[in-house]
Amino acid sequence: MAKIIKTKGENKPEKDEHNDDFDGIKELNNPAPNWIILVFIATIGFSLFYGIRYFGYPGNEKDQVSEYKISSAEFDKAHGQQPDATKGGPVMGQEEMLTVGAAIFAQKGCIACHGLKGEGNVIGPNLTDNFWLNGCTQENVIHMITEGKPEKGMTPFKTMLTQEEIKSVSLFILKKLVGSNPPNGKAPQGVECKP
Ligand code: HEC
To answer: Does the beta carbon of 113 lie inside 6 Å of ligand 1?
Structure first.
């Protein structure tokens, strides 16, 4: 009867046996099946093709970063927006930001402490003059709105507004409120902004 499981004979030397015999430990010559070698060669071939196609030479623009840039540029073109150099993505235009900023200023509680028109009141300073307690650059203003100054009564808005919203309201303050000269403006506080 044929054996179901073939074992290499232990005593008689096999023809595919290597000649190494060390303390009775033998190394057999069992080559991998052809199909697995074919798969192996195919994966090497594919990796060469893939590497050259996507990363191979400068300017072929097939890698992910380039593809992303190309398609976001197409998107910007289709939607008539300028790409924002700082974020690498489509953003609101300035007019849209000013509208959004005005709505936030009116609806998110700023007017309670800075007045309906930003003129200031007993709590918060006038945001329509060009005198600043905490600096007058857009970064300063964004920082104030983001982190607030709780010890002086300015609420931090980082959990209540998105980065984009904070940027919009800061733009609204700097472009629309500053210089608007509303009635009953609170006396200037801080230092005048020198450009
Ligand atoms: C609870 C009251 C309160 C609310 C609400 C509030 N602020 Fe203020 N804010 C203040 C006070 C008080 C200061 C002055 C802090 C100081 O003494 O430096 C201030 C300062 C600021 C400053 C800096 C002014 C400067 O002279 O440096 C900006 C900008 C500002 N607030 C924007 C906003 C915006 C935008 C909102 C709404 C999203 C808002 N604030 C909501 C009370 C408030």
So the answer is: yes
State the residue for tokens 């902004």.
Answer: 193
Provide the CB-side half-sphere exposure for 95 (13 A, CA): 2
Q: Which residue did the predictor score with more confidence, 18 or 79?
A: 79
74 residue type, one letter = E
Report pLDDT for 3.
Answer: 45
138 lines ligand 1 (CB under 6 A): no
Q: Give residue 50's Cα distance to chain centre.
A: 27
For residue 38, is pLDDT > 50? yes
Distance between first and last Cα of the chain: 101
Question: Could you tell me if the CB of 173 is within 6 A of ligand 1?
Answer: yes
Please give the C-alpha separations between residue 14 and each of 6, 8, 26, 28, 173, in angstroms, as whole numbers. Answer: 13, 7, 11, 9, 89
Place of tokens 């980065």: 163
1-10, 51-60, 66-75, 159-168: least confident range: 1-10
Q: How far apart, in whole angstroms, are the C-alpha atoms of residue 156 and residue 33?
A: 67
Taking the centre of ligand 1 as the mean of its atom positions, its distance from the CA of residue 57, in whole angstroms, is 53
Give nearest CA residue, ligand 1 atom 30: 145
- Pair 191, 131: CB distance under 8 Å: yes
Protein residue closest via CA to atom 8 of ligand 1 = 154
